[in-house]
Design goal:
Number of domains: 2
CATH architecture of the largest domain: Alpha-Beta Complex
Strand order of the largest sheet: 8-11-9-10-12
Helix content: 25-40%
Low-confidence stretches: none
Order of helices and strands: EEEHEHHHEHHEEHEEEEHHEEHH
Radius of gyration: 20 Å
Strand content: 15-25%
CATH topology of the largest domain: Spore Coat Polysaccharide Biosynthesis Protein SpsA, Chain A
Shape: globular
Mean pLDDT: 91
Structural class: alpha/beta
Number of helices: 11
Number of strands: 13
CATH class of the largest domain: Alpha Beta
Amino acid sequence: MIRKAVLPVAGWGTRFLPATKAMPKEMFPVIDKPVVQFIVEECLHAGVDNIIFVTGRHKRPIEHHFDINSDLEKHLEQAGKDDLLKNVREISRLTNPIYIRQKEQLGLGHAVLVAEPVVGNEPFIVALGDVIIDGEENVIKRMIEIYERFGKSVIAVFEVDKEMVSKYGIVSVKHIEEDIYLVEDLVEKPKKEEAPSNLAIVGRYLLTPKIFEKLKVTPIGKGGEIQLTDAIRLLLEDEVVYAIKIESKVYDTGTPLGYLTTLVEYALKREDLRDDFLRFLEDIVSKYNQQTGKA
């Protein structure tokens, strides 16, 4: 049984400076819900309700978001805003979160290692706090099903354009059946010509506790950081690792362009926003084309 999920959210978010000087990128809103709440809800819907946030000193807004705000609830109740009150109460009661401090931002692998005292000697989920996965199937739930069948680590992968492989951890795999693969090798952010495939790690991992042993001996990798991908590669020396190929839509909100495209697509999913927003987009694109002389 998988009981715990680690959400590494201690990064500086330098791509979004100066906004992230005071506001964590994981708290950026997708319309009216912060990015990190999507990930927490994904874990909860998969039956994983012990959420471990690996945070930094600049990430207190995340703690506040999942805490009870009695003053706000009282204000909404007095104002008769029952729908908003219900929403706010649900957020603060979603989970009883655990917070652990990553005192230095030394990479994703280091962030996972920091969580070892809380995770203990049991398998666990790692879910990146800036990647939203939108699809009919809950990816974490599917990963748990595969773990329950094989008893080994599982990572989620998806196809990316060859031009994009240098932005991801890339895997070499052997197909077993349907959406299940056996991982043969992993490379962190390879050059296009060196990538073993175009299957990228999507930011969802189910790891056996042996990963902690490997993280402790993982050398410094790309970017001067301890890379989780490198640790999983070491794990392959002792036990097999499985991968599932997902077809769900992946939204990477960790870059300005990724965040903007996420906002647009989610706005177009909303019945209360879709029509007016679509007209706005059509109008602004038309004006832009006129100004630039494009057809």
